[in-house]
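Worked Example 4.2. Consider the chain below.
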Amino acid sequence: MRLLLNWFLSAAALLIVAHVVPGFIISGLVAALVAAVVIGFVNATLGLVLKVITFPLTLITLGLFWFVINALMLLLASAVVPGFQVRGFGAAFIGAIVLAIVNALLRAIALGASRGDSP
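Applying the procedure from the previous section yields the following structure tokens:
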């Protein structure tokens, strides 16, 4: 159940980012759901390896370099998912930042609601 919730929250976050960030385009719900799966897979495999390799640089930049890695993962996912486009590194970088914020907010609201807490 939690996996499905995370999947839908990730897709919703992608749709929100597409409305906020110019150059970040998702054609619909199906594309958002597929993109959420691909981004999760890419981050769990290649993204994890890149984060381990670039950890010293991430420390020097106080964690900000992770947004660069996440932007690259978004660009990679947009190359393989039909209906999901990221037009350039700038859109990917801003999209990665906004996506992190939106994901955190949606998860806080959803998990707070599932525990009975008020947001």
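The chain has one domain: 2-115. Residues 2-115 form one domain. Compare this with Example 4.1 before moving on.
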